[in-house]
Amino acid sequence: MLIMNMDWQCIYSTQYDHIAEIVKAVLQDNGIKCFSLSKKDSAYLFGEIELYVEPDDVLKAKQIIKKEDFE
Question: Is 0.70 surpassed by the pTM of this model?
Fold first, then answer.
């Protein structure tokens, strides 16, 4: 089980569950621990899913996301 530390930083957000899962999987495949947090309203299903990484991985994670051009 991955425990999120308070200094983890949000590096990506999307309203689409499947995109968040793909980004998370790509980051994990590149050795980056990633934590997702759904901020979607449970009744109306609007809102964002945020992905968090450790501070040391922020730059690498953002580079991977930019290179892959998700969405």
Answer: yes
